[in-house]
Structures are given as structure tokens and as C-alpha cells.
Amino acid sequence: MKASEVMDPHPSTLKPTDTIECAASHIMDNRYRNLPVVDDNFCYVGMFGVNCLLKQVIPKQVFMDKGLKNVGFIHESFDDLFQRFAEVKDQPISICMSHDIKPVSPDTPLTETLLQLYETRSSIPVVEPGSCKLLGMISYWDVGRKIMQFKDEC
Amino acid sequence: MHEFAKADMLFGMSPLWFSATLFVVTYVVIVTERLNRAIISMMAAALMIISGVLTQQQAVQGVDFNTIGLLTGMMIIVGVTRDSGVFQYLAIASAKLVKADPWGILVMLTLVTALLSALLDNVTTVLLVAPITLLITDTLKLNAYPYLFAEIFASNIGGTSTLIGDPPNIMIGSATGLGYNDFLFNLAPIAVLVLVVTMVPIYLIWGRQLKAEPHLRNKVMLYREKDAIKDWVLLKKSLFVLTLVMVGFIVGHDYGLQPATVAMFGAALLLLLNSFPYSQEKQTEMVAKTLADVEWITIFFFIGLFILVYGVESTGLLEMLAHQVLALTEGDKNVTAIAILFVSAVASTVVDNIPFVATMIPLIKNMALSMGGQQELLPLWWSLALGSCLGGNGSLVGASANLIVAGFAERSGQPIRFLPFMLIAFPLMMLSIIISAFYVNFRYF
Question: pTM for the whole thing?
Fold first, then answer.
């Protein structure tokens, strides 16, 4: 089996120009972890998800190279966290898109796809070979559902 | 001074010309920062041996293992101690002590930086203080620049005051046999004065305008400094060993204990106390992590540099230069001391003060005969220490700590630019050198 056989060919997507606030609402309303970001030509440019949102509400000194290692002394309320979020909510999501998740091609063997799914701990994009066009997304749930269709009744 | 055998040079080259050329080329490459400084100095050291200026045995003799041991020992102690969170505790507690008043925080963080730089080393100090400074200024919605600027100055001024505060002092102490107390009694008073005077222009330029909303100050007041301590047991062990090491520095000199012995003993003791309760595997893992945190680039840079300078010294070049300097100052000790102070300050502004001091040490030693003995050189050593340590404040590249703070500023989106920094820093540094010149003049002549 290949990646193309387990992918969702109609994934929900975001645009690099979407604001962090809009993307956050979309992600929270639908309980997504990560969504692919595509440009006007449906070209895959990165991923945006809950990790980026979390990063916006944690003091940025934590994420600096050689930054704060311990933040146990900071005690903040939800209002404080929202204030920090409010500072970036109108920024485009491109400012904290993840480029770490490497896409697979539709012909990638299933086992290799699963290994990548395991290693990246995120849904992975399927991209047309030789171009950047997003063909679909593979999530734990897509794969899990296909495997579990063979199970006995509980 | 050292006795050197005649060099057996490759291809019959002149040892003086070869070593002088190698020395200049090495300095130029270090200044350009195109290559890692450890690679440059190790390459230069190897060429000193391959060319025949030094034998391998002589090269090993040229390495000041007291400096190497002291640096490595302190790096290990600080590496273990910082995991306890004690430095963050100090920074937060000091900010709360002044009720999170913006100017008060600047003063307190400056004092903490100066104090830690005197007891530890500049680089470690700013690595620990700069992130917490950025957090506090971010919370108070203040420009971090004045705080980081003051911390750069405090780290170099604080480092000036003790034997272990700044690498030039470690090198001078090791080469001359001057102890911890000598540095403390001769340099700490002037360091305190320079720090106080430096705060005046900082207040006039930035301090008066620093204001923060009460609700933002309240956020800082809600920080719980005790929660910054991650490991109370480690904290107690670290403070015990640090105290022991400081006492060792202060009293050890009278018993013939070199600072390297004290620092290495402290490092070994802390590693023992920290690893003792764990399995052998875990101990190996912990020791490996601590040793990996040692700044080996700095250590190998020192080793290579010592060999390079020893090679140059072996050719008699530094002795010739010493005579030239004395001819210029007409052998006047006062004029020589002031000249060393200003030249080392300006030189340390533009080049790394470590190679500069490594070169100046044998050069000054060579003046002993003309000056009337080693004891007469004391004002010159204090001038070198003051000039090279305080000179680091003159520009962003003047000291490693400056560049580390600049790196943090860049990452926080409030970059410290070279020229705007120098426009204020260089005159302030020169002010500190003028004060030092008066101090040297009145205290030693």
C-alpha cells in the first residue's frame, strides 16, 4: 500500500496570510492539532498548529537560544496569557509556521509513511512529486481507521 | 624570565622573523573572526613547533597550567551550580527588593551582575542574568537596551575586581604569583568607584525616563523567587563548595596553594557530592554532561596562545619590544604604567583582551631589570589588569560577554548595534580609564 491510499484528499487548510487569531479559532473549534498551510496555488508551504499557539502565550525568553530553563517562578492568570496572545493575534501565521515536517509523495510505501508519522508526531502532508502541490494529508485517525476496520467486534 | 635553547629552524629560517610573522598573521586572523579562535591558536602553536622555533617539550613548558586549571575548575563549578537556579533567584529577589521600580531594577541587576562577575566569570554571569532581564523588561513593557547596556558594563567592571573575575586577571595572577587578596585589595576599590560613576551617565541618559505601569510592576512582584530554585540539595552543596573555594582563594595563597589547585579541588568535590548518591552509570552520565559544558574552545584557545607567545618570547622579540617601550617612556615607571593602562584599554576595545594580555605579560616581565626588580612592576600589572578588563567595555567586540548580551538582545528583537553602542560605551570606558589613571597615580606613585 502507498501513502495516497490512506490520505485525506480534501484536508482543511490555512493560508500564510491568515491571522493567528483566525487560525486559532479554526483550530480550537475543530480540535485540530496541525493544519497544512498552502498558498494561492495550493502549494504546500508549512504547517501551523497548537504548538505555535502555545508558544505565543509562553514568555519568549524560554525559546531563545540559551534562554530561561526554569519558569516555575512565574505565576500567571488566563488574562495574562491572553494579553500575550493579543500582542500577536493580528500577525500572519507565517511568522510561526513549522517547516520541520517533511512531506511525503503519494507513492511513499505505507510502512515508511507510518514511520514518518510516528517520528514527526503530527499529521503529514502528501505533496505532488516535482512540485509543491498539496494532494492530501495523512493523520493518525486516517491510518488507524483503515487498520481497525479489520478488528473483531468489542 | 625563561632560558631558551637556540632554535633549530626548518629551512634555516630566522626564528625571530618567522615567529613575528606568525604572531602578526595569527592576530589578524583572530581579529577578522573568519575562523574559530581555537583553531587559529592551535594551528599557530603547531607551526611554532613544526618550524623549529620551539620543541614540543618547550611548547608544553610554555602553557600556563595554573590559568588552564583555574578556568576549567571554575567552569565545572559554575556549570553544576547554575542548574540549581540560584542565579535566577538572586535576579528575581533583587528586582522585588526595589518593588519592581524600573530604575531600581536596573541598579539591582547591575549590582548582581557585577557581584557574580567578580565571583564567577563574565560570560557565565551574563548568560544567567540577560534572559531574566529580558523577561522582566518584557513584563514591564520597557526597552531592554539600558538594562543590557548596564549589565555589559557591570560584567566587565565586576570582573576587574578579583583574580578570577576576568581571564586577563587569571593570566596576570598566574604569571606573577599575585594572589586573590592582592587583586581584591588593589582592584576592588577602583572597580566599585568606576561602577558608581558609570551609573551616573546611565541614569542621565536612560534612567530618568524609565517608568512602568503599577499593574505591570505588580506582575513582577508576583514572581516567586523561591520557585526559581529547582534543586535545594544541589543548591546547598554548590554554595558549600563555592564558599570553600572562595576561602581557599583567600587563604590558600599564604600556604602555597595555587588558584588552579583550589578550583580543581572544588570542582572535584562538587562533582563527588553531586554524583555520590547515584549509580555508576548515572554518575558517568552526569560527569560527562558537566564536562561537555566546559568551554573547551576557550581552553584550547588559551593553550595555543600560550605556546605562540612563548615561541615569540623565545626569540627575544618581546625583550626588544620591552626595551623600545622603556625608551619611549624614558624608563619612567609612572609614565609606563599610564601608557600600559591606556594602550591596553584601547587595544582591548578592538581586539580580544586574552591574546593582548598573553603578549603583554612577558613584555612587562622583561622590564623588571630596568625598573629595579619584580616588586617595582606591581603598578604596571595593575595598569594592565585595569586597562584590559575595563577596555572590554569600549565596543561590542571588546569582550565575549558583550557579544553574548548582544546575541540575547538580537533574539529578543531589540538589537544592540555596533556603532550606537560604541558612541556611548567608548567615552564611558575612557572615563573609567581616566579614573583608573588617577587611582594608579595616587596609590602607587
Answer: 0.84
